[in-house]
Amino acid sequence: MGLPTLEFSDSFLDSPDFRERLKCHEIELERTNKFIKELIKDGNMLITALKNLSAAVQKFSQSLQEFQFECIGDAETDDEVNIAQSFKEFSQLLNTVEEERRRLIQNADDVLITPLEKFRKEQIGAAKDGKKKFDKETEKYYSTLERHLNLSSKKKEAYLQEADTQIDKERQLFYDASLEYVFKIQEVQEKKKFEFVEPLLAFLQGLFTFYHEGYELAHEFEPYKQQLQFNLQNTRNNFVSTKQEVEKLMKRIRSADQDYKPPGQWTMEGFLYVQEKRPLGCTWTRHYCTYEKGSKTFTMSNTENKSAGKQPEMFKLKSCIRRKTDSIDKRFCFDIEVVERHGVMTLQALSESNRRLWLEAMDGKEPVRNSASSKAPVDMDLDPETWDNKTITSGLKNYLRSACPTKSDDQNYRVCAVHALVHKLPERNKEMLELLIKHLVTVSTQSQNNLMTVSNLGVIFGPTLMRSQEETVAAMMNIKFQNIVVEILIENFNKIFHQPPDPNVPLPQPQSRPGSRRSRAICLSDRAQEAPQPLYPNTVPSRCRK
């Protein structure tokens, strides 16, 4: 039920019913006043919470911006570049959203808090002042009326006329205060309908504008999101295939000889214990040693010395001789002579087979014996021609391993380069490759039914067709690039196998490895039909970025 109507004519009667109706309006104004106070308090809390949320989001965005992805290997695929860049894209998106939120927060006080406080103080406050004046005039009028009615009729006529004039004046002041109070109450009740609601509407409009801006940003972000989902799915597929290959390699390494010498930069490397003579005896110190046969360079790094910055010791090897078992109380020992030191350096290997590998690498000799013995081991000196060939082969492998993978920013050049390399294959090999790729093209055209997209076929046949001869973790990490080459063969089948290559296209050549790796992504395949263009061209790496 609504509030009762206040008639101006009732102000003259000042009946109990009028007072009761007036009381209802006063209670409603007081309730409105308390509600506005609570609303202002809650509004300030909301604005403070928005400020705290904005600060937290900005801190979160800053953390995303500062994080730097690092991937295994010396180069990255397009997928890895886009994934590594994604945190910066997320940070940029959050910052854009927070710009809109900051505008909302900056306007919230002027739009919501100030108008409500103004309405409460000016309108409801004016009604309260009118009530005070009305109560004061009411008390004054009725007290004057009582004194007037108590006057004796025996008073002089002039005195009575003066009293009548005074009571009429007080009555008029009372009526004026009553009319003004009734008018003000009704004015506040009517203004409340719009001056109270308008600030809330304006605040909600700003809030909805913020939400709408977020929706628009999300809509603009959709192409980049789809691109990133595509990159993530490719990376997940590559991970599954690479993981299987790495697990197989781990099992083979686990079952191999513990003294297996993996391919590396050095002819031989590993831990050795070095005998160091002291005034009261000698000590054995563990060093990590390397030996390069071509230059006969022997390097020792003390792993037990905690002092930082100490450089490894480098020596030029003169000779290497196995230590006689009965000449020392340690096992697996051998002696070396170096140019930089006088005398012999005694080293201890980790096992007999490990010592044999070191002796083979250093062209180790057997110790000279005074008498012949049927128990003497076979001479460790090997055929120098054989070792020269191996040294050359090892050096060539090391050069190829250290060479930077070929990369280009031009997608057409990549396709042309693969095109030219395919036509350099022996004819029978090329025919077999064409037969296989043709079948894969047929399979990919039915991808909606068999789910074998070009990307999935690359994951399956990349490691099969382009497996590295060296079974190392680094080679396994390069499977993702092999997958991309197979994708190029499938996507450009007609051009690669049915058209002659451009003779003017230079083939990729091995390059020296640059210092920075972040800008050296290898991106070969162009799957534009499967992935939308990035939203932010200035910040999102393209499919053809280094």
UniProtKB/TrEMBL annotation:
Biological process according to GO: signal transduction
Domain of life per record: Eukaryota
The entry's keywords: GTPase activation
Entry GO CC: cytoplasm
Coiled coil: none
One matching Pfam family: BAR_3
Annotated segments matching region Disordered: 500-546
UniProt GO molecular function: GTPase activator activity
Biased composition range(s): Pro residues: 500-511
Domain Rho-GAP: 298-497
Gene3D superfamilies: Arfaptin homology (AH) domain/BAR domain, Pleckstrin-homology domain (PH domain)/Phosphotyrosine-binding domain (PTB), Rho GTPase activation protein
Annotated ranges, domain PH: 265-367
Protein name stated in the entry: Rho GTPase activating protein 42
Species annotation: Lates calcarifer (Barramundi)
